[in-house]
């Protein structure tokens, strides 16, 4: 089991290749700053008063086997649904901030998110007085869990796609609702590990779990049209599972926002 934890933890700490274009230009500076690895994406609407969502990539950072657009497509999706988004490339930001990962990556990711939100408030990227969400994929799900257990202000919900749950404390308490979207054929972040975590996590009613038969790791990533074997597991897109999970994520966020008035939130 220790070997398995270590192997999966490596997924959470692997460095991504430098993406190209505008993103790459941001990173090529003489004075590295963590802010260079925080990518805000606003809705088309003007002004403040929008709910917000933080996006935590998987272990490869903002690149998924050469695909540098997936997490930004996720941000654009939530923009289309009225949320301002912030992609947090925690693998690159953490060393700049002097934040080290010990064991599971979740606590490190959560610390980086707190720094990213401080930048978002300072730069006006997000209105943090509005309701907020965090969504994470694979190793990014470890950070989601850390934030569910110890939320930032105004966090109202969380989403984990095949989240890394190994290493969480036995007395884990979910302070906000969490939606979990799990492939049943995932042999990296396994359904068995999820079941073991859920047996002791409380309160049970704060976890909404949807499982997708035959779905592998990365089942929601369209660029994985052909199977990729990595670190002892298989990454593969599964269109029907991806669509079903997307519907659940949309409904989860909409439900939590339905009874929350958000006009102006913190104001200008």
UniProtKB/TrEMBL annotation:
**Recorded superkingdom:** Bacteria
Q: Which PANTHER family match?
A: DIENELACTONE HYDROLASE DOMAIN-CONTAINING PROTEIN (PTHR22946:SF0), DIENELACTONE HYDROLASE DOMAIN-CONTAINING PROTEIN-RELATED (PTHR22946)
The record's listing under SUPFAM superfamilies reads: alpha/beta-Hydrolases
Q: Which InterPro entries does this entry report, sorted A to Z?
A: AB_hydrolase_fold (IPR029058), Dienelactn_hydro (IPR002925), FrsA_esterase (IPR050261)
Q: Which GO terms describe its molecular function?
A: hydrolase activity
Pfam family for this entry, one: DLH
Please give the name of this protein. Dienelactone hydrolase domain-containing protein
Where's the Dienelactone hydrolase domain?
134-253
């Amino acid at each position: 089991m220790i070997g398995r934890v270590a192997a999966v933890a490596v997924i959470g700490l692997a460095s991504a290749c430098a993406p190209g274009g505008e993103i790459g230009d941001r990173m090529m500076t003489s004075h590295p700053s963590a802010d260079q690895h925080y990518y805000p994406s606003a809705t088309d609407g003007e002004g403040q008063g929008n709910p917000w969502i933080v996006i935590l990539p998987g272990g490869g950072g903002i690149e998924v086997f050469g695909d540098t657009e997936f997490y930004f497509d996720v941000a654009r999706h939530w923009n289309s649904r009225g949320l301002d988004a912030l992609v947090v490339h925690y693998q690159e930001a953490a060393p700049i901030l002097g934040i080290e990962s010990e064991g599971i990556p979740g606590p490190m990711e959560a610390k980086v998110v707190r720094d990213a939100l401080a930048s978002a408030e300072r730069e006006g990227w997000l209105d943090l007085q509005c309701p907020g969400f965090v969504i994470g994929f694979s190793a990014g799900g470890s950070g989601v869990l850390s934030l569910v257990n110890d939320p930032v202000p105004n966090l109202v919900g969380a989403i984990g796609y095949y989240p890394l749950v190994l290493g969480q404390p036995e007395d884990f308490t979910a302070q906000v609702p969490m939606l979990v979207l799990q492939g049943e054929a995932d042999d990296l972040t396994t359904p068995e590990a999820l079941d073991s975590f859920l047996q002791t996590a409380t309160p049970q009613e704060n976890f909404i779990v949807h499982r997708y038969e035959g779905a592998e790791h990365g089942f929601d990533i369209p660029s994985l049209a052909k199977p990729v074997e990595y670190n002892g597991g298989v990454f593969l897109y599964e269109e029907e599972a991806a669509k079903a999970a997307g519907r659940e994520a949309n409904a989860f966020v909409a439900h939590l926002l339905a009874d929350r008035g958000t006009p102006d939130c913190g104001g200008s």
